[in-house]
Amino acid sequence: MNRKKRFPLTRVVLGLVIAFFYIPIIYTIIFSFNSSRSLTHFSGFSLRWYEKMFSSSPTMNAIWMTFIVAILATVISTFIGTITVIGLSKCGKPLRRAVSFANDLPMMNPDIVTAISLLMFFATLEVSKGFLTLLLAHIAFCTPYVMLSITPRLRLLDPNLADAALDLGANPWQALWHAIIPQLSPGIIAGALIAFTMSFDDFVISYFVTGNGVQNISILVYTMSKRVNPSINAISTLVVVIITIGLILVNIIPRIRDRAMRGVKKEDAV
Prior knowledge:
By secondary structure, the protein is an all-alpha fold. It contains eleven helices and no strands. The protein has helices spanning about 1-30, 50-55, 55-90, 95-110, 110-125, 130-155, 160-165, 170-200, 205-210, 215-225, 230-270.
């Protein structure tokens, strides 16, 4: 009887927690289609604020800047993370432990600590804040997530896979590209999607390392939140949609890949 009584209570608590997180997001999405400037009264359906968003030069510049930085940071961090993980698999345990600790540290640190550290680092090197510092900062905090995503996949591989490819006549680059990378592709894709989502959504670190004239969507939304501007709902909705698509892909692509691999193995077995 006690278990039966607790089960509905658990569902109620879980429902309240979910509602607390998602009702504000749904509220923002609904009022992004409001025909009036009111943020509390829905006057009617309209695409007015989306039209204003796409016709605004600062907004479009921020959107393009966000995509450019996110794509570049994703590609570079995925390459660095993949090569680093593969290289560490051939190193000794002390080095792997040291790099693993250094990789976990940025993810455990609060964003504000990472942001201030990067700000001081760029200031020490006398690097002017702008696009370059923004890109380097995003690469720095995206790479650990890529490595974290690929490492479990690498541990499942046969350690003799590369040696077998070399014995069959492949050179080291061919063994890496044709034997190891395809086996790691689910982890690489998942890591890349996580890196893109993290870069696209970042505000705290971006705010500290960017300069005048360079801002992403998160910084633009922050500046617009200081005054009543319904366009912020349209921009926020766009961010929510893009991040949601990224998260869906992170969860679906590895499963599709695994099912395809299982299908190929079954066909080979037959």
